[in-house]
Amino acid sequence: MVINKCVVLLFCVLAALPAFSAQHVALHPRPGFDAGDQDTIRQIVDMERQAKEASLRRDADFSLRTLAEDYVAITPLGQVTTKQEAISARHSGQLRYESMNVTDMVVRLYGDTAVVTARADVKGHQLGEDFSGLYRYTRVWVRRNGRWQTVSYQATVTQ
Predict the structure, then answer these.
(1) Strand pairing of 113-126 and 95-110?
(2) Shortest CA distance to 16 belongs to which of 83, 97, 78, 77?
């Protein structure tokens, strides 16, 4: 039970982690790709970078600002996490990241929606337990009222 709670809290932070120290970003444009799309990609990459920094600093305000009210995440164990649960995990202070490295990031645009897939190598502890390892994730950003918000996230543990 404690392990499951640790994994849920880890996932909450990873979900809020739009982590980005990405060494590789790929763009898969749809037909009609233009300079405006390039600017949108830069915005999303910047949001990912800010989220990574917020995760390392345990800054719950970033999650409060960027997670949509209808945000839903699915943990590596298949548990559903809401915005409030993700923010609570940040506020607890029991979760500590030592480092995060994001690679293999791909950003796909669909109008006011951006789908990000990436690989994250995470080092950290939750309640004294090491949760370091490799994850792959998908995050969905939607532009609402001129602001990018995360509406969905799913992570999977990888080898």
Answers:
(1) antiparallel
(2) 83
Angle (deg, nearest 10), helices 83-91 and 2-15? 100
Quickly tell me which residue has 């994001």 as its tokens. Answer: 102
84 lies in which domain range? 2-158
Nearest to 126 by CA among 95, 157, 98: 95
Look up residue 30 and give its DSSP letter: P
- The CATH number that applies at residue 123 is 3.10.450.50
Distance CA 65, CA 46 (A): 15
Residues 6+ apart with CB under 8 A from 77: 4, 7, 8, 11
Tens-place pLDDT, residues 41-73: 999 999 999 988 898 998 999 999 999 999 999
Distance CA 136, CA 28 (A): 18
Number of domains in the chain: 1
pLDDT at 22 over 70: no
CA separation for the pair 112, 147 (Å, rounded): 10
